[in-house]
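Report of the visiting student (M.T.), summer placement. My assignment was to run the structure pipeline on a short list of targets and document each run. The first record concerns Protein yippee-like.
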Amino acid sequence: MLSFDPGPGLVAGTATTSSLPVRTFRCYLPRYLRTYSCVHCRAHLAKHEELISKSFQGSHGRAYLFNSVVNIGCRPAEERLLLTGLHSVADIFCENCKTTLGWKYERAFEISQKYKEGKYIIEVVHMVKENGWE
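After the run finished, the structure tokens were exported:
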């Protein structure tokens, strides 16, 4: 078991199956929750209940806005002129496979965009839905 404390409702540990190699992620989301995972390595990324909006645009198409995510790393923030104005954003990547997934809004310069601060964009092309989406 890892020493990482994943917080309430989250499980830390190692995943194994008989046909797959051992994979250790920083955080595992409970199996009974609908979740989003990295399409490239299946690392858990977010709980469905953390989804704020599906109407965002990423660099490679549609993207979702999340309140919080897990198993991601953050690159240094930089100012970018996006469709909704100037923002300070930091690219985020999967901690397991290092694929760039989207970005974190560090600062919004327009008052109407302040709600995005501290939130995360993950592009749909990099996510897969898991657990109970029938």
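The first strand starts at residue 11 and ends at 15. The two ends are 31 Å apart (CA to CA). I thank the supervising group for their guidance throughout the placement.
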